[in-house]
Amino acid sequence: MSSERPSFDLSHVRGVVAGGASGIGRETVSVLAGLGATLTIFDRDGHAARTAAAEEQEGGLTVEAVEVDVTDGDAVRQAFAEVAGDRGLNTLVNCVGSNRFQEVDEVGFDDWNEHIAVNLTGAWHVVAGFLPQLKESIDGSIVLISSVAGLSGIPKAVPYASAKHGVIGLTRALALDLGPRGTTVNAICPGVIGTPLLLRATTRAFRDQAQERTPLRRLGRTADVAAAIAFLVSRHARWITGAILPVDGGLTSGIRSSHWD
Predict the structure, then answer these.
(1) Residues 6 or more apart in contact with residue 101 via CB below 8 angstroms
(2) Which of 4, 185, 204, 237 is most buried (most C-beta within 10 Å)?
């Protein structure tokens, strides 16, 4: 994990990081726990989740792990009820996501349903499971991970882009409904981040050209996103809700029209 850490005190945070066993989620767990947060990792890869939790525990941090698939709403609700305990929870970060680039003519119903289930319905499941565990006296924070593909369509990713646009709609609607309860809801739209998901879904040419077309001239790091999440769940961000924050090195400042095969 990165040694570049923001300086927020997150000792008040008792939360869940869904998708916390790898990529952006794994970095987020490390950063938030390192700043004092008490966390539980939700991930369908139970072994990876337990390994991540053990690594943080070795450093003296308070992190647990639960194996759960966010596409199973009942399982998600049960998992939240089990980890909340009497103290409740006040923070949720959803980093679960999947993508597979394919031509639009190749997208079948199963492809569509899979991407919507993981990227959009899964986000709703974790929110729905989290809300009953929010105690009324707690100022809650929810951060959902969308994508630059949630701000603009990208080639060869119809289901993914549609789902990530939906995450932005979900964020804004939740911000309206939960604001009167003192709960903030924000979304982060990462650009091209060097995660295992990116490496599986793209070619070297794609990544090289993405770097060239990003104003800051590099791929993003998971630490870049985790730092933004740390701010949004901190007490410094209590007046920010409904925000859609690109963390993309400036990529969405311009326009592109090719997939960079």
Answers:
(1) 156, 157, 201, 202, 259
(2) 185
